[in-house]
Design brief:
Blueprint lengths: L12 H10 L4 H15 L5 E4 L2 H12 L3 H5 L7 E5 L8 E2 L8 E2 L5 H8 L3 E6 L33 H8 L5 E6 L6 H5 L3 E4 L19 E6 L2 H11 L28 E6 L10 H16 L2 E6 L2 H11 L4 H14 L6 H8 L6 H18 L8 E5 L7 H6 L1 H8 L5 H4 L3 E9 L5 E8 L4 H15 L10 H8 L1
Helix pairs in contact: 2-3, 8-17, 10-13, 11-12
Length: 478
Amino acid sequence: MAKQTDLDIPLTISSLQASYVQGTLTPLQLIKTTLTNLEHRGDDGIWTYTLPEDSLMQRAMTLMEMSESQRSQRPLWGIPFSIKDCIDVAGLPTSAACPDFVYEATRTNPAIQKLLDAGAILIGKTNLDQFATGLVGVRTGYTVPHNAFSKDYISGGSSSGAALSVAHGLVSFAIGTDTGGSGRVPAGYNNIVGLKPTRGLLSTRHMVAACRTLDCLSVFALTAADSQDVLQVAQGFDPENPYSRPAGMPPADLSSYQANQSFRFGVPRPDQREFFGNGDVKSRYQIAIDTLTKLGGICVEIDYAPFLDTNELLFSGPWVAERYASVGDFIDANPDAAFPVISEIIHNAKEITAATVFEGLYTLETLKRKIQPLWDSIDCLVVPTTGTTYRLDELAAEPLKLNTHMGYYTNFVNFLDLSAIAIPNGFQSNGIPTGITLIGSPYQEAYLVGLGDAFHRQQVNQLGATEFTFADLDKIHH
C-alpha cells in the first residue's frame, strides 16, 4: 500500500481545498511533491506524457498570483488531474497509445477546457488500450500498466492509466472515456469511483473517437462526491458537437439521494449472474445486495437477458464499424503500427454492410422498447462491475474471450442511454478489489452519486491504493 504523497492528507478535492484555505499547503508545494513522486515511480505504465516541470511550476505560480476574488470563481483551483491520451489538449501530443499515430493537438476538448478554466492543474496524459479498444488496459504501444494492488493482474481498461493515476494518489481526479465500460472496469479493479455520465453531458469534440454515437467522457475519483464535483464543472452543452445534449431532468423522486430513503434496486436473476468461476466476486456481490438492503433498498430480481442481447451489438455487431470510421484509414496505411488484436477487431468492420448496420439499429430499438418498462419497477440496476479479474498471463493466452467476459455487465449501458457509477465493493482473497455499478436512467447522476457514496462508506474504508481512509477525510472536515 503506497503512501499517497508526502503531504499526509488524502488527495481528494475537499481535502486539498481545506488545506489551501488553512494555509498549510500551496499549489506550488503540491506540484513539487507530485514531481518528486513521478520521478520516484519512473515508467510505471501510467503516463504517455507528463507536462514539463517548468510548465507545471508556472501553472502553480500563476494560480497563486490570483486574487481571492479570482480564486473564488475557480471551483477546482489548484486541483491536479490527468486525462486519457485520446483526448486533445492544444499544444500537447495525442497518441491513443499508438506511438506511430501521435499528432500535436491544435484544439482542446471543451470539457477539459472548462476544468482548466476552473483552476485545475493538468499533470499529464495517461495510457490506455490502443484506440480505446478493449476493457483490459494492456493493449498499448507503451509500457504495459498493471493493477494498483498487484503486478501480476491487469489494470482494466481502456482507461487504465487514468484510473491508476487516481488510485495511486498522483492526481485528485482523472478524465477517461467510456464506450462499453472503459470508465467503469478499471475503477472496479483499482478500488476507486468511476462516474459514467449520461451520453452527451460532457462534450466529446476534439478526441480520437472509438464509437462516436456511444462515446462518453468519464470521471475517476477517490470518492463519489469528488466525481460529481468534477461533472458539475465539466458538463455543458456544446453546440459544435452533434452528440452534445443539455442537462435534462431526472424523475422528481430521484433528483437526489436522501439517507434512509427507500429505493428499489434491480439485480439479475441468480441463474443469469455470471462470475466465470470466481467465488469471491460472487460472495462480495451478495454482500453488496445485503448492504443496499440495509440502506433502505428493496431488491427486485429482473430478467437480464435483454441486456445481454444488447451487449452483443458492441463488438459482435455492426458498431465496430464506427471504430473503422475513426482510425481504419490509419491502420490500413500502417499495418504494423497497431496492436495485432486491435487491428483484427477493426479490420473485421470492413466486412460489415450497410444492411447489417440498419439491422443492428432495428435490433437495438426493439431491445430498448423491451427494457423500458423495467424502469417503472426499479429506481436503479445494480450489477457487479465485472464478474471476475484476470492475471496478465491469463489474458495473453485468451485476449478476445476474456475481454468479452469483462463486458458482461458493462457493454449495454451507452446503447440504452443510461447513467452509471462504479463503486468499490471490497477485496477478493487474492487482494484485488472488486466493485459494483449502479445504473440508472439518463440524468440520474446526482442520485447515483448519493447512493453510491452511502454504499462506499459502508463497504470500503481505504481510498484507492493509498494508505488513507474515509476516517482521514472526516478528521480533516471536522
